[in-house]
Amino acid sequence: xxxxxxxxxxxxFAIAAxxxxxxxxxxxxxxxxxxxxxxxxxSRRSSxxxxxxxxxxxGGVTVGVMALVIVLGVMNGMQNxxxxxxxxxxxHLRVLTYGEGLRLDDWPAVMAKVRRARGLEAAAPFVMTQGxxxxxxxxxxxxxxIGIEAxxxxxxxxxxxxxxxxxxxxxxxxxxxxxxxxxxxxRLATKLTAYPGDVITMVAPAxxxxxxxxxxxxxxxxxxEVTGLFETGMYDYDNSYVLMRRQAAQDFAGLxxxxxxxxVRLANPERATEAGKQxxxxxGYPYRALDWQLQNRSLFSALKLEKLAMGLVVFxxxxxxxxxxxxxxxxxxxxxxxxxxxxxxxxxxxTRIRRVFLIQGVFIGLVGTTLGAVLGLIVGxxxxxxxxxxxxxxxxxxxxxxxxxxxxxxxxxxxxxxxIATLAPLYPSTQAARLEPVTAIRYE
Length: 444
Hints:
By secondary structure, this protein is α+β, with helices and mostly antiparallel strands. It contains 16 helices and ten strands.
């Protein structure tokens, strides 16, 4: 995982905020300020309301921090889960040519050059086309047909071999009346009622042949045996992808010895853009490199914008909690006006009076932030590991709500909450320090 400049700034801000609060708390010269502040926060028989509003203030900060931690965890989980699911079938890079044909005739020579690129782990030719699939009854389904090299998974360009529930990528058939083996997703297998050992029929629009006697194009039919099932958790892949040997896909698509392109696996998928530019410079025109980030740029840009918007909206809960702290301390000041006057008459400095109420605000912020962060991390972990919130995969691509807690985001939330909790008591503490002793003692 790469760390962006924004993550670094968030981490520095969080560390600075936490350090400032720690220094603020630990540098009070007298214990009397802390004792008075804690006493004002505790309930007495004559003033149980103060204890109640203190609990409410702490609860407000707790709820705000917990909600913000969970929301950011959900957005991080969505980004991470979608990235992993996208890379199950899609490689880090695809080397293609310009034009409408999307065919690569001299792919062996091109692949030899591509394999010399830095950071490359594997490269293989692939075929991508479309077709119509049926399993011997009236129902038919449009699918994407992917032709790849037969492999057991040791040299696969994608992580798809790890998601097979039955069979593998060797496409071994047990029948002699078929063109070869195919692997399909579990959702597609359920719709077609086709499982390993069954025969499916594929129609290739791209490979249709012209019949002179009929004066029309006749679709090309192929029969294949289902040799494997995979389940990636990504709705589109499990519902509409059919895998077969590259040679069978070339025949199905009518490409001859050509392929659609070359797929590449890199050691670091985050550097796909740089690697793609390097390959383009190496091959020159008319070759181009299409990385997975470019293909899904709109999706991830939308997720980043949604994360920012959701974070700002939920952050308002922390702001509301700060107003709650202000109201709590204002009520404490009004309830303890006579005691403040007595303390000032006995010689307690105004700065220490102000410090008493600052300690109360920081204490509420520390307790609320700690509880909120801990509860947010616990709830997020429970939701993620237990798959407690299912969602419609046909709309959101994934079948459950993922939560991934980023330490940098958690630190930023803690730092922002502590800053707000430190700023909130400034007004009530200043008002308490401005009281005149005689007026405060006579206050009813």
